[in-house]
Every structure is written in structure tokens, then in C-alpha cells.
Design a protein that fits this description.
This protein has 42 helices and 14 strands. With 1170 residues, it is mostly helical.
């Protein structure tokens, strides 16, 4: 490509500029795609005048663009010799000082530009730039400067100049800003920066013209010397022109452009952000923001001709950077105020536009752009908070109005974005603009003189507010005690230097104690209670008494608790109590928090959330607001009588009881499970923050939904609320969560009553959260002192329910009756061991006897056929699968509970009459087995209480005790009763061993062995015990039971034989002779096996079905007795060596030989001899 002047493109003043940086000596061009100018047959700026009619350029009067501070001098001449001499300031501060004098700038701007006609060279220059842009998106460095210079010069006199500026200024500036300043030379940098300044001047001129021509008069028609005949632009075209010009302004102020963008990692790749800052300062100094604001206000209500919001975002970022600092214009307060007003008016125009924007317009905008726009507005006003508080408050009023506009729209995305804005407003109100406490009361510190009132000592603004981002500190001057007090109350002591310690103490007490925040070397902020050093406060020269290593959320204000004691102080550390707010008198109830709460209540925001158009996502986003309103219920302390608030009293705008009722009604409506889940989370999260009266009212409303008179069933809703309160995740089936909620005693009392109402509901056992709720109740019942009173109250409720069941002879729902029994144990398990034992023992064991009577009543109903296991079929997900009521499982559950109750008392015992009654009412073998398991478990002391049978919840819907409490249980009856239970019940001929299993026989073994060890061998060595063993061996339907009974039977005979031999060898006395003779005549194994064989033989002859099995077992017993292990086929040979000759003189008959053989018969040889 050749340059328009006939020379090659290269380095120098005519170097061609590409949209991407080019290196020195580069001759390549970058084509960005097809351009509009490639198909043009004529240059875009054709001349209608004869060349000879154009006066020489040297004779044309030239307007000096800008001012002397700009250092830009336009020298007339040909297009090949037009040079721009730019003197770049050496530092940023120098440039800022040059543009800061607004008076000089305004005087220079009052000079009107000379109206003239562009020369042929100017038209040719514009054509060259236009062709380069249209065809290749390129521009020559010098041409960029010169074309914009001429465009500014002839802007008011030439339609062509205006057309060039409107169409080609934006791409020229865009290409220039994409150049990297470190990769181009100084001349190229000067061209870029000169072009930016010229473009800024063009924009300033256009904005001024817009304000001057309020009637939108066509500027081009007033220039009679213009040569091109064109139709005047319409008002819409002019407005579009201004939008395009503001796009260029936004581009110039965009700090992310390559030319500006800084790189902290590498200075070589870094841009020049100071160039942008200088342009912003220049625009501010020339009152550019004032003219911008004037234009924006004229189009604020237009959705078409107001600049795009992305453009406005860049302009607001520049406005934020243009906010004067505290030191800037310190000697010119009026000038500072004027500039602040310019910036505020720009912001207000944007706010007016957003307020009047239609819903369709807002839906087209990106949430990110809207959010950035609002954030940029907030940053501007936050910087102006000190000097322009009223305007800043207006911005936050706009934020609330705009948020209301969003959340009341029909678009869900806009609603959600509006709720996000509300969350940010809450954060600003509670943290950024929350005034610190007026004073702190320090108490309970071990070092006495540290306790007292600490008044605010930070900096205040002129209107009485705390300076934002200033140091927060509080001070207290310790009063000097009187001489009389010090001498009478303080003992005198002398230190090692001979000085009086009391004088030193008095001197220390006269110093000022400071509560302040200090930034440590680790950049963490700690709070201290110290005597600050007068010369170097906040250093290691301070005398620190107490300190607090604060977390991130504790850095804004001194924490109330969590302080630690320093070396110079004594334990315990103090507790701090904040009081009041640091605002001007009368503004205590008009802080940002109060204004936000008033807006929410006045506009019925809570009703809007929980109304007919309720949505899960909206409810989730509204939680911060409702929590905030809940916190406002106890926010304010009453003021002194001497202080009168501006509008309302304390806590006037906060969460109301009607809001809570509306939330609960939303849950009861059963419209959407997901929405209800969010509302449950909402109610539970605010419950600890509510005043006691509101919390109780909410819980009472929930409990009233379970009223028996209520025709609708809200058990599921109440239970889900309670499970959320318990912290359990119902969907995952997890147990109680780890987050423990703190309640006041009055609130905890109502919470427990609500939970108890759920647990005792007729259908509560069908809920899948039943165990979660029981565990949570246990946790709450163990919190003293409220827990003790509630445990006794719940136990009384259980007693009344048990008595009601006893009074009804029929038509009792067995599932409810069983649940009341299990709840009785549940309450006892929540008690401390001493209290539970006392509750069982009082009134002569009334509770234990009541539970036993309930068991007898249940068995009586079963035997009479009066029990009625009611069940309601349900398919809802909140209920478990219903199954038929299992009576055996219910019996086992009751027996387990009775075992627990009698075991924890230590003194209350069961009688033989009770056991007889219980045994007789059990008509089925499975019931007898359950009773046998119970009696075996209750026969001795247990170290750990556990289940004595299969849990009722294993295979059934009904849930038993969820906690296995590890505590010692004593025997439930005495030794005499144990002997009776074994002989009269376990060994009874009525026991149907045909249908009993291993659990029954294991229980038989337990009692058998326990009696054998307790000096009652006679109970087990003969009589009913051996009869029972023989009967079990022959009649047991379970083969494993029969096998184990055979082993035990042979072991008994072996033990008896060994005992007899020992007694005869030691000494023969009357007792032993009698015992031996008695055994030999009545308990002889030979006689017993012979009798069994005779009985079996008779049965076989009679065709008895079980006689064949009994015969086989007799053979097994006999084989085992003579040495065959059961089923092994191996002989026991230790009896083979028996020789009758060695017993010569002692053996007179076969019976004598048998007595010398273990078990009566032992060994194959002896068996063959017999």
C-alpha cells in the first residue's frame, strides 16, 4: 500500500496505523474484513468547488483548538507538511495542576471559533482517512491527528466536517487505543494522545452546542458558506449523532483499553493509565460533566435516544475517578462544590432514566451491565458521603425505588435481580453505613479500673456523623479516688525501691484507658483495651490489659465477648455491651437500617414475597431481608426524655406477627413442596432473632394446626417444620444437625410443647422424621433448668395416657397405646440417672406397676379379641410404608420397657404373682419365648442396657426407643422369684418345646446356670430341671435346641457322677450316703433312658407321629453316653481301661459297676459286656 502523497508507507510522520500495533519499519497492513468504502466509486467527501476558487491555506484564519495548557499548536500548511508539535508533560501531577484552574479554562472556551471553509487539502485528508478506514481499517499516524484537528476547526461551519466526525472519529480513536504504548515510538505516542485530546474537545464542543440549541436547530443550515447541498438532519438523526459521540467519550474513558491498561506484573507490557486520568481531569475542568448531565437529563425518559447503559457505565466510572479528593480544591470550596454538583447531576440523570425505564427495556439489558451501573453510581455517592450526605441518601432512596420496580415486574429474571439488589442494600446498611455505638459499657473484667463507660472518641463530620473509614476508638478517664477513700480502702505497701505502691496505683488510675483497633504486622486487625502511650499510641509502648484477635466480621466494631487477658491485667476478661448509635441528636431512628426497614414495611415487601405469586427462588433470596426485619424488632433502645426523634419511635418498622402467620399459611397451602421447604428454612433461621413474644406467637400458631378440632390434616407440614428446626435433612434421612439453636427459656418451653404434640399425634409414628424429632426433644430436655420441669410434665402426660388405656376395655388403637409406652421410656432416658430412678421409685413404684398393668391389659385385650390395630393407608412421601400391626413385636417392646423401668429403680421388684399372671396370659409359643427372654434378662444385674429381643423397628413401621442408653440395670426380681420362675414356668410341663426356638432355650440355660452358681445345685441336679432337660431333648422341634439340650443333659450326669466319687473317697457320712442312695434309686441314668425307650416303644406301637423322632434322639443320647460324639463316629476310649478286678470287694452286681463308669455307662467294651 502506498500513502496518499505518493511515497511508500513506512516509519516517520506518514507511518500507516493499523488496528493492531505495528513495529518500527513495518510496511504491512491488517485488513479487518470487507469495509463499506471498498465499493465506492467516489471519495466520501467530494468537492463541488473549483480548485482555483479555494484560497491558500496560509491565508485562512486558523482557530487555536483547546487552550495553552493543552500544548497543541496547529500549524497551517500543505497536507504533507502539516505537523503537530506536542509537548508531553513530564509527570502526571504537572498535567493535573495545569487543567485544575477552571477559571482560565472557562475564559479560553468563551472565544468563538472562526467560521471558515475547509480547503481542498482538508477534504483530501478526510477522504484519505475515510478510504483507509473503510477498506482496511487503517489510518496514518499524522492523518489521524490532522483529520480530527480539521474536524474540530470546521465542526460548526461545514457539513462535511460534521459528517467526518460523526462517521470516522470513533474508528480512528478505536484504532489508536488498541496500540500498545511500549511497542511504538515517542512520535506515535504523541499522535495517539493528541488525537485523544482533540476527540475530547470535539465531544465537549458538541455537548455545548446541544445545550445552546435547546430547540434542536440544525447547525449546518446556519453556515451559509457551506458548499455542499444536503437536506438538514432530523431531530432523530441529531440524537443518534450524540449517542455516537458519547460512545467515543466512553471509549476514551475506558480504562481497559490497551493503551491505558496497566500490567502490575511487567512494566514492559504496561499501558499508560495516567493518560486516561489526565483526560478525565481535563474533561472535569472544562465542565464537561456539566454539559453531559444537561444532555442526559433531556433524554432521561427516552428508551431510544438515551446512551446505551454500557456507555453510561464507562462514563460513571470516569465520574467516580473525577470526584475531588479531600486535598483537591481545598482552597476553592465553591469550585469543588460546583464540580461535585456536575458529577451528581450526571448520576441523577442515569437514576432518572432507570426509574422511568420500561420493563421491556430492562429485560433487554444484561444483569451484569445493570449491576455494574448501580455499583458505579454507588461508588460515586460513597465518595461524596462526607460533603453531600443528602444527595447520597437520595441515591439509596433511588436504589430502593428501583429495586421495588424490579421485584414487582412480571419478569422472573428482573425479580431475582431486584432481590439481589436488596441483599446488597442490606449489606450496605448493616456494615458500610451502620453508625458505631455511641458508647460501650465494659464490665466483669478482673482488673477493676478497666470496667466502666467508654465514650466514642473518633472523628466526626461537620454535621455530626462519624467519618467513613476512619479510626474507631473509645476512651474512658478513670476517676481519681479521694484521699479518704484511698487511705481507708487500700492497704499500704512498699516495693523494693521503697516507693509506695498505692501512689503508683493512683497514678495509673489517672491515665486514660482506650478501646481501639490496631492493624498488626500480619495485616490482621486486633482490638485492645490499653493505656495508650501519649507520643506513640498503638505501639509496643502501650500498656495492654485485654486484647481480642478479631475475625473478619469482627473488625468493624469491638466484639462483645471472646477477649483474652494480657500480662498486665487479671482474669476474667471483660464483656462489652454496646449502647446507642453515634449520630446527631434526633437521628437515632433514621439510620440507613431504619430507612430500609421503613421502605420494606411501607411497601409490603414481605406480603409480596409470600403472596399468590410466590416462587422458590424469590423466597430463598428474600431470607436476608426477613432476617434483617427480624433483627430490627429489638434494634433500638428507648431514648432519653431530652432527645426527640425526627419521625418515629424505637422498633417501629420491623417484622410483624401478621408476616409470620402469612408465612405459615403459605406452608399450609401445600402448593409447592419446594416453596414450603424454603419457607421452613426461613422461619427457622429467624426464630432465634425474634422477640420472645413473636417467637411464641409463631410456635403457637404452628401448634394450633394440630388441634383435634381442625378438619384439615397439617401433621406433615408441622412435622417438616419441626424437622427443619431440629436441623435434620429429611430428604437424606440424616440425624439431627450439628447446629444447635439457642432459645430463651420461655421459647424453649413452647418449642418442647410443640414437639411433644407432634410425637403424641395419632399418626406421628408414620412420619419418617419421627426419630429425628425424638432425638431433638432429648437434646432439648437435657438443657437445665427448664429440662427438669418439662421431663416431669411429659412423664405425667404419659401416665395419664396409660391410665386412659387401662380404663378402656375395647376399641383401643394399639399403635397409639404402644407409642405412649415407648414415650414413657423415652422421657426416662432423657432424665439423669438419679432423677429417673426417683421417678420410678416414688409412690411405691407407681410407674413400674402402671406399666405392668398396661402390659396385662394389652394381653387381656388380645386374648379377648378386643384389640384393634387401626392403620390409615397413605401414599404421601412423608409417611413410611404401612404394614399390619405385629402383636409379638409389641409384646417384646413392652417387655423391654418394663425391664428398663424395673432395672433403673434398684428397689422396685416383680413378684411371683405378676409372673404367674403374665405367663398365663401368653397363649402362643412365640409369646412364651418373649417372656422367657425377658425373665432371663431380668434375672441378674446388667452392666449395659440393651435390647432383649428384636427391635420393633426392624420389620415394622412402629418405631421403638431410638437411643440405647448405656447405664447399669439391676435385677428385676429376687432370687426366690428367680427359683420360682425357673421351676414353675421354664420347667413346666405346659411349655411347648415343639414350637420354641434357640432364644427360649438360651433363656432356659441362663437361669439354669445362674441357679447352679448360686448354691442351689439341688435345683438343677434332679427333679424338674432334669425332667425338663429330658423333655427338651426328646420334644424340641428345633434340632439345634435338641442337640444343645443333649450336651447339657450328659454334662449334668457327668458332673453328678464325679461329685459322688469325690464324696465317697473323702468320707462317708450320713448326708452323702443318703444323697448317693437317693440318686441311685431315683436319678439313675440307666433307669431314665430305659423309661424313655419304653415310652418311645409304646408310641411307635400306637403310631404317634413324633415317636420316631424321639426314638432317634434316644439312640443319639445313648451313643453319646457310651462314647460317640454326636455325628462324629469316634469313640471315647478313656473308659476302655476300666477293669472290674481293680475294684474287687466293692462290686457285687452290675449296678455297682455302672456307678464307677461316668454317665452310668462309658466305653464300648463295657457296653458290649452289658
Amino acid at each position: 500500500m502506498t500513502n496518499p502523497n505518493g511515497g511508500p508507507t513506512g516509519i516517520g510522520t506518514e507511518d500507516e496505523l493499523h488496528p493492531h500495533p505495528i513495529g518500527n519499519g513495518s510496511t504491512s497492513t491488517t485488513n479487518q474484513g470487507p469495509s463499506q468504502g471498498q465499493n465506492q466509486q467516489h471519495p466520501p467527501f467530494a468537492l463541488d468547488l473549483d480548485v482555483d476558487d479555494i484560497p491558500p491555506l496560509d491565508s485562512l484564519p486558523i482557530a487555536i483548538v483547546g487552550n495553552e495548557n493543552d500544548n497543541v499548536n496547529v500549524i497551517p500548511g500543505s497536507s504533507t507538511s502539516n505537523n503537530v508539535n506536542v509537548n508531553v508533560p513530564q509527570n502526571q501531577s504537572q498535567t493535573q495542576s495545569q487543567v485544575s484552574d477552571l477559571t482560565m479554562v472557562q475564559q479560553e472556551e468563551e472565544e468563538e471559533a472562526v467560521v471558515s471553509i475547509p480547503s481542498q487539502m482538508t477534504f483530501q485528508l478526510w477522504n484519505e482517512v475515510a478510504i483507509g478506514i473503510d477498506r482496511n481499517q487503517t489510518v496514518i499516524w499524522k492523518n489521524a491527528v490532522d483529520s480530527l484537528d480539521d474536524g474540530l476547526r470546521y465542526l460548526q461551519s461545514s457539513t462535511e466536517a460534521r459528517t467526518f466526525v460523526e462517521k470516522y472519529m470513533k474508528p480512528v480513536i478505536s484504532i489508536l487505543l488498541e496500540q500498545h504504548p511500549q511497542k511504538i515510538g515517542m512520535m506515535e505516542r504523541n499522535c495517539v494522545e493528541d488525537s485523544l485530546r482533540l476527540a475530547l474537545s470535539i465531544i465537549e464542543t458538541e455537548l455545548k452546542l446541544k445545550i445552546q440549541n435547546t430547540g434542536h436547530t440544525d447547525i449546518s443550515t446556519s453556515a451559509s458558506t457551506t458548499t455542499t447541498t444536503t437536506s438538514p438532519p432530523t431531530e432523530e438523526q441529531q440524537l443518534e449523532t450524540y449517542i455516537a459521540i458519547l460512545d467515543v467519550l466512553a471509549m476514551i474513558f475506558n480504562k481497559k483499553k490497551v493503551y491505558y491498561k496497566s500490567n502490575k506484573m511487567s512494566s514492559w507490557n504496561s499501558g499508560l493509565p495516567e493518560v486516561r486520568n489526565n483526560l478525565v481531569m481535563k474533561f472535569k475542568a472544562k465542565r464537561g460533566f456539566y454539559f453531559l448531565a444537561q444532555y442526559l437529563h433531556t433524554q432521561a425518559s427516552s428508551m431510544t435516544y438515551f446512551p446505551p447503559l454500557e456507555t453510561m457505565r464507562q462514563l460513571l466510572i470516569a465520574a467516580c475517578d473525577a470526584v475531588p479528593s479531600k486535598k483537591e480544591y481545598a482552597d476553592k470550596p465553591q469550585l469543588r462544590k460546583m464540580i461535585e454538583s456536575d458529577l451528581i447531576h450526571v448520576c441523577k440523570a442515569v437514576m432518572a432514566h432507570l426509574t422511568s425505564a420500561t420493563e421491556d427495556y430492562l429485560k433487554k439489558q444484561s444483569n451484569d451491565v445493570l449491576n455494574d451501573l448501580r455499583t458505579s453510581l454507588q461508588r460515586v455517592f460513597d465518595k461524596l458521603m462526607d460533603s453531600r450526605r443528602e444527595e447520597t441518601l437520595e441515591f439509596y432512596e433511588f436504589s430502593r425505588t428501583f429495586a421495588l420496580k424490579l421485584i414487582t415486574s412480571q419478569s422472573l429474571p428482573l425479580k431475582l435481580y431486584g432481590w439481589d439488589n436488596i441483599g446488597e442494600m442490606i449489606e450496605s446498611a448493616q456494615f458500610d453505613y451502620k453508625p458505631p455505638p455511641k458508647y460501650y459499657v465494659v464490665k466483669k473484667a478482673g482488673t477493676e479500673f478497666v470496667n466502666g463507660v467508654y465514650n466514642f472518641a473518633g472523628d466526626l463530620t461537620s454535621d455530626g456523623y462519624v467519618v467513613p473509614n476512619g479510626d474507631i476508638s473509645y476512651e474512658r478517664v478513670v476517676p481519681v479516688p479521694s484521699a479518704t477513700t484511698s487511705t481507708t480502702t487500700t492497704s499500704t505497701s512498699t516495693n523494693k525501691d521503697g516507693n509506695n505502691n498505692n501512689n503508683a496505683d493512683l497514678k495509673a488510675k489517672e491515665k486514660k484507658i482506650t478501646l481501639f483497633r490496631c492493624t498488626m504486622r500480619s495485616q490482621q486487625k486486633w482490638w485492645f483495651l490499653s493505656e495508650a502511650d501519649e507520643q506513640l499510641p498503638g505501639t509496643d509502648k502501650d500498656i495492654d490489659y485485654y486484647q481480642h484477635k478479631s475475625k473478619k466480621d469482627e473488625e468493624a466494631e469491638p466484639p462483645s465477648a471472646g477477649w483474652t487477658t494480657c500480662r498486665e491485667a487479671s482474669d476474667p476478661p471483660p464483656i462489652l455491651e454496646p449502647k446507642g448509635v453515634m449520630v446527631p441528636p434526633g437521628q437515632e431512628y433514621n439510620t440507613m437500617e431504619h430507612q430500609l426497614a421503613k421502605w420494606a414495611i411501607t411497601n409490603q415487601i414481605v406480603e409480596l414475597v409470600l403472596g399468590n405469586s410466590i416462587h422458590r427462588e424469590i423466597v430463598a433470596r428474600s431470607i436476608p431481608l426477613i432476617r434483617f426485619l427480624a433483627s430490627m424488632c429489638t434494634k433500638d433502645d428507648p431514648l432519653d426524655d431530652s432527645i426527640q426523634p425526627n419521625e418515629v419511635g424505637p422498633n417501629a418498622y420491623c417484622l410483624q406477627a401478621s408476616h409470620l402467620t402469612l408465612a405459615w399459611n403459605t406452608c399450609k397451602s401445600k402448593l409447592d413442596a419446594a416453596v414450603s421447604s424454603e419457607v421452613y428454612q426461613l422461619l427457622v433461621s429467624i426464630l432465634p432473632k425474634l422477640p420472645t413474644s413473636l417467637a411464641i406467637q409463631l410456635l403457637t400458631t404452628v401448634q394450633q394446626s394440630l388441634d383435634d378440632s381442625n378438619p384439615k390434616d397439617y401433621l406433615f407440614e408441622v412435622a417438616e417444620f419441626c424437622s427443619t428446626l431440629a436441623g435434620g435433612n429429611a430428604d437424606s434421612g440424616s440425624d439431627v444437625g450439628n447446629n444447635c439453636i439457642y432459645f430463651e427459656d420461655e421459647v424453649r418451653d413452647v418449642v418442647l410443647k410443640l414437639l411433644w404434640a407432634v410425637l403424641t399425634h395419632p399418626e406421628a409414628h408414620l412420619l419418617k422424621w419421627y426419630n429425628i424429632l425424638k432425638n431433638f426433644v432429648t437434646q432439648e430436655l437435657r438443657i437445665e433448668p427448664m429440662g427438669a420441669r418439662q421431663r416431669e410434665a411429659f412423664l405425667e402426660y404419659c401416665k395419664r395416657s396409660l391410665l386412659d388405656n387401662l380404663s378402656q376395655s375395647s376399641h383401643i388403637d394399639e399403635s397409639i397405646a404402644l407409642r405412649m409406652v415407648t414415650l414413657t421410656q423415652f422421657v426416662l432416658e432423657a432424665c439423669p440417672l438419679e432423677q429417673s430412678a426417683q421417678l420410678v421409685f416414688e409412690n411405691r413404684g407407681e410407674l413400674a406397676n402402671l406399666l405392668f398393668k398396661e402390659l396385662i391389659s394389652y394381653l387381656t385385650r388380645r386374648s379377648n379379641g378386643d384389640s384393634m390395630a387401626l392403620s390409615i393407608k397413605r401414599t404421601a412421601s412423608n409417611l413410611t410404608n404401612n404394614v399390619d400391626f405385629k402383636h409379638n413385636a409389641a409384646l417384646i417392646e413392652r417387655l423391654n420397657i418394663i425391664r428398663y423401668v424395673y432395672g433403673i429403680s434398684g428397689t422396685v421388684e416383680m413378684s411371683t404373682d405378676q409372673l404367674d399372671t403374665l405367663w398365663k396370659l401368653c397363649h402362643m409359643s412365640e409369646d412364651h419365648e418373649a417372656v422367657m427372654v425377658f425373665l432371663a434378662s431380668a434375672s441378674s444385674n446388667d452392666t449395659i442396657h440393651g435390647s432383649t429381643g428384636p427391635s420393633l423397628g426392624d420389620n415394622a413401621t412402629y418405631i421403638g426407643p431410638t437411643n440405647q442408653v448405656h447405664q447399669p440395670l439391676t435385677a428385676s426380681y429376687s432370687d426366690e422369684v428367680r427359683v420360682y420362675a425357673f421351676q414353675s414356668l421354664f420347667c413346666s410341663n405346659d411349655v411347648d418345646w415343639e414350637n420354641l426356638g434357640l432364644k427360649a432355650y438360651t433363656s432356659f440355660q441362663i437361669l439354669f446356670k445362674s441357679l447352679k452358681k448360686s448354691l442351689r445345685a439341688s435345683v438343677t441336679s434332679h427333679g424338674v430341671a432334669l425332667d425338663a432337660l429330658w423333655r427338651i431333648c426328646l420334644e424340641a422341634g428345633n434340632n439345634d435346641v435338641a442337640t444343645q439340650a443333649m450336651k447339657d443333659l450328659l454334662h449334668v450326669y457327668s458332673t453328678i457322677s464325679a461329685t459322688k466319687r469325690q464324696n465317697e473317697a473323702a468320707a462317708k457320712n450320713a448326708w452323702s450316703q443318703k444323697s448317693t442312695e437317693e440318686f441311685s434309686t431315683t436319678e439313675s441314668f440307666a433307669k431314665r433312658i430305659y423309661a424313655c425307650l419304653q415310652q418311645v416303644k409304646q408310641g411307635l406301637l400306637n403310631g404317634t407321629k413324633l415317636s420316631r423322632r424321639s426314638a432317634e434322639r434316644c439312640v443319639r443320647i445313648l451313643n453319646a453316653a457310651i462314647g460317640h460324639a454326636a455325628g462324629s463316629g469316634k469313640a471315647t476310649t478313656h473308659a476302655v481301661h476300666f477293669k472290674p478286678a481293680s475294684c474287687k470287694g466293692l462290686i457285687n452286681k452290675v449296678e455297682d459297676i455302672v456307678q464307677f463308669i461316668p454317665h452310668g455307662l462309658r466305653g464300648q467294651d463295657c457296653y458290649r459286656t452289658i
